[in-house]
Amino acid sequence: MNRFLQLHLLTHYGPSNLNRDDSGRPKTVVMGGTPRLRVSSQSLKRAWRTSDVFAAAFGRPAGLGETGEGTHLGTRTKRMGVEIYDTLLGAGLAEKLAQECAASIAGRFGKLKKADAEKARSGLEIEQLAHFSPEERQAITDLLPRLITEKRAPTEAETALLRQPRAAVDIALFGRMLADSPAYNIEAAAQVAHAVAVHRCTIEDDYFTAVDDLNRHDEDAGAGHVGEAEFGAAVFYLYLCVDRELLCENLGGDRALTDRALAALVEAATKVAPTGKQNSFASRARASYALLEKGDEQPRQLSVAFLKPVSGSDPLADAIDLLRATRAKMDQVYGPCAAAVTELDALAGTGNLAELQAFAAGD
User: Fold this and answer.
1) CA proximity to 264, closest of 56, 42, 40
2) Is 315 domain-assigned?
3) Which of 332, 327, 329 is nearest to 342 (CA)?
4) How far apart are alpha carbons 173 and 167 in whole angstroms?
5) Do 270 and 331 belong together in one domain?
6) Residue 292 CA from chain centroid, whole number
7) Do residue 193 and residue 338 come from a single domain?
8) Is 105 left (phi over 0), alpha (psi -120 to 50) or beta?
């Protein structure tokens, strides 16, 4: 089994604001002395794990009280304690006991926020987002009827059993970090770089107005609303590296599920766009070029190919040529980084998604 799978993707997005900063403008980075558009890895990973691609492959995440049968996706939330409290209270458990039970269970997954006597359900939210696997949600669901019937709080041994060793697919890929419960951390099998434009970029301002449909211009002929929206357009380079051995380990040694996870990740990375401002820009795109490598050598990304910004009139074609040339030169200097390589080139009409998925999952 070749340990590492590396993906190098080139995707063009037209006018868009895929990933905003704190002021609402598209995120940027200066690379090679020139400003570039950027999409954060966090934005990308969330778009993939909540996509229809992942849902079709692994089922929708189950809620508290649902069996979760057939799903392999986790749920990120601070509110599990609140959900448990509402369930216990609805089943007739006394308010104080329901509070104690919910705090005991939720506290197993992270430090709880400080209680505020003046606020309902206070002290039941986890301070940071906790990622619950389907097995962990099911363990909580199975425990609650016992607590309701016996009208008691859970024991330390019972809450310890809520932690399950097998991770959900999204947790196995992207990891789980709990600062207050490091024993339950799961190392991410997939490393995702920020997507960066291969050429110089300019953020532009769109001055827009909205008209009031009931304004007949009898007194005021002005717009009902005036605003500005920032956007940019770019060809982005995205790099992913997956430790396939670690992914299989995180999934409890299930090779079939590991193969499905790799296939779904390749499909999502090449087809799913970040969700930012989609209603305003419809900036949905698929990768025009994909280079996949697998082997046991130390991985390396190829962003250095675009340290000098692409400046020609056909940035996508130029970026493909630069990526291929940079990989060849790196291999010439350091030796082959991969034991096997495959490509998809939508401009040339060569390769296809099914081949990429088979390559990613195969030995």
Assistant:
1) 56
2) yes
3) 327
4) 9
5) yes
6) 20
7) yes
8) alpha
pLDDT tens sequence across 251-273:
999 999 999 999 999 999 999 99
Q: What is the dihedral of CA 124, 167, 272, 241, to 10 degrees?
A: 120
This model's pTM is above 0.70: yes
Helix, strand, coil percent content, the chain, rounded in steps of 5? 35, 20, 40
Do residue 262 and residue 330 come from a single domain? yes
Identify the domain containing residue 22 by its residue range: 4-45+188-202+233-361
CA–CA dist 52, 69 (Å, integer): 18
Q: Is 247 exposed, middle or buried (0-12, 13-18, 19+ CB in 10 A)?
A: buried
Q: Do residues 160 and 267 share a domain? A: no
Please state, in angstroms and rounded to a whole number, the distance separating the CA atoms of residues 356 and 362.
10
Instruction: Give the span between the Cα atoms of 243 and 95, in whole angstroms.
Output: 47
Residues whose CB falls within 8 Å of the CB of residue 75, separated by 6 or more in sequence, listed in order: 61, 62, 63, 131, 132, 137
Instruction: Answer yes or no: is pLDDT of 115 > 90.
Output: no
User: How far apart (Å, rounded) are the C-alpha atoms in residues 358 and 353?
Assistant: 9
Q: Do residue 97 and residue 146 come from a single domain?
A: yes
| Structure token digits, residue 92 | 């007739």
